[in-house]
Amino acid sequence: MTIYIDGHDYHYETENLVRLFYPNEKLEVTEKCCDNPVKPFIFTQLKKCKGEWLFNVEVEINEFKGFDSVSVSDDESELEKTAERELAVCLYGLLSKCTGKKQPWGILTGVRPIKLFRRLSQQYGEQYAKEYFTDKLLVSPSKTSLSAVTEKNERKILSLSTDRSFSLYISIPFCPTRCAYCSFVSQTIERAKKLVEPYFELLCKEIAFTADIVKEIGLQLESVYIGGGTPTTLNAEQLSELIRVIKDSFDMKQCREFTIEAGRPDTIDEQKLRAIYDGGVDRISINPQTLNDDVLKVIGRRHFAQQTIDAYELAEKIGFRHINMDLIAGLPTESVESFVSTLDRICELDPASITVHTLALKRSSKLTMEGRGVSTDNGDNAAAMLDYCERKLTECGYHPYYLYRQSRMEGNLENVGWSKEGFDGIYNVFVMDETHTIIGCGAGAVTKLKVPGEESLTRIFNYKYPYEYINGFDEMLKRKEQVKRFYDELS
306, 407, 409, 473: least CB-packed within 10 angstroms? Predict the structure, then answer.
C-alpha cells in the first residue's frame, strides 16, 4: 500500500495511523505523487485555497473509495498546533469507514497516553482532558475513564520524586527458553551458559563503577529493578552476591522499592527465593502469562500452570508480601473463556499486584517471523479479555496505577498495572512517565538522563548482547562517564 504525502511533513504520524488499521501491510511512504496511483493507496495533501489551509484526504483500498476535506486555521501559528491532529481525524474517519473498525484509543499512536492526559489536566483541568480525549482524539469513553483513574493513582507516586532522584535498572539477559512473542535482547541458558559467569563478574564491576559516579554527583536512589531476561536463571549464590554488591555500592537509605523479576516458574526454587528474601528484596514478579498448559506450549514455555501456583505459594510461605503476577491477553490459541479462567485462578491467589499485558507482535519475535500477523479477530478477543480484567480486578480491590501502549498490539489496546492499596510498583511508574533519571547496568540496558522540568532525555546505550558486553566492557565504562559530565553541566 502506498501513502502519498503532498504539502506537509507528517510522514511518521500518517504512517503510524494507517498501521492501526493495517498492521500487517507493507507500507511505502512517498512524496512523489502521480496522476494515476495504483491501488491500494492513501493520498494526503495540505494546500492553501482561497486564503485558508485545507487538508484533502483520498483513500482507495479494495472496493472502497473515499474522499474528505477539512479546513484548518488560516493563522499559520495556529496551523502548527492543530494541523497534525486535523489530518489524523480526517484520515481516521475514512479508514474507519473502509474497515468498519473504530480504534479504542482513537487517533493516539503514542506509548504514553497517561502522560498526555496529565499534561492536559494540569493545564486546563481534568474535565477538559477527558473532553479532549473523547472529542479531539476520538478515544473511547471507557479508555478515557481508565486514563483518568490511572493518572490520579500515578500522581501520588510521581510526587515522591525530587530533582536529585534516580532509579537503577540491572539487566540479566538470559532465559531458560525464548518465548515465541519475545523481542527482548535475551539468550537461552542452553546456548549462552559459558557466558553467564564472566558476564556476572563484569556486571558487578559495572555496578560498583556506576555507584562511584552516583556518589560523586550526589543523586538519591528511589528504586531498584532487576529484570531481563529472567534474573532467576542465576543461581542462589549469584543472586545473593548481586544483591550484596548493589547494597554495598549504593546508598539504600532512601530506596523505596527493590524488585527482582522471578518471572519464569521453571527457574524458581526455595534456595533462590530465600536468597532474594534474605537479601532484603521487597517485590518479586512471578509471571504465569497464562494458566492454560496448551497455550504455554504454543508460546514456547517449558513449564506447566501448576508450577506457577507452586512457585507463588512457596514465595508467600517464605514471607514475600509484594508478589506481582503478569498475564498476557491475546496469546495464540487462547480463548476468552480460557483467559477468564486464568484470571479467576490468579485472583484466588490474591497477589498484591497483577500486570495485564496485551500481546504485541514485534518484528523480531518468533511468531512474526513465522508469518503470524496482528489479527482483527484476535484483537476482538483481547478487547473482551481486558474488559473482563477491568471488571474483575476492580471487584477484587485492585486499582490501575500505570498504563502504557506498544506498537503492533492486538486490538490496538494497552498494558495496565493493577495493584492493591499500598502495593503500586513505583519503578514502573517512574520509568514509564520518564519522571527522573534511570541508570542502567548490564547488556541491553539504557541509561536515560533527565533534566528536571524538561521533556528531553539523553541516552547512553550499553552493548546489547552478553558477548558484546564482555568484549567491549572497558569501552562501555567510558560511556558511563557521560553521566558525570551531564550532571556537571547541569550544575
Answer: 306
Cell numbers found for residue 470:
564482555
Grid cell 545473593 is found at 240
Query: How far apart, in whole angstroms, are the C-alpha atoms of residue 457 and residue 43?
Result: 34
Q: CA 217, 222, 227, 232 torsion: positive or negative?
A: positive
Dist CA 466 CA 186 (whole Å):
9
In order, the DSSP letters of 18-54 are HHHH-TTS--EEES---SSPPSSEEEEEEEEETTEEE
The reply to whether the predicted model has a pTM over 0.70 is yes
pLDDT tens track for 9-67: 899 999 999 999 998 889 999 987 777 888 999 999 988 887 778 889 999 999 999 99
Residue whose cell numbers read 496522476: 35
Please name the fold of domain 2-99.
Double Stranded RNA Binding Domain (3.30.160)
The domain 160-483 is placed in CATH, from the list 3.80.30.20, 3.90.25.10, 3.40.1280.10, 3.40.50.1000, at: 3.80.30.20
Rounded Cα gap, residues 355 and 328, in angstroms: 9
Side-chain-side CA neighbours of 261 within 13 Å: the count stands at: 23
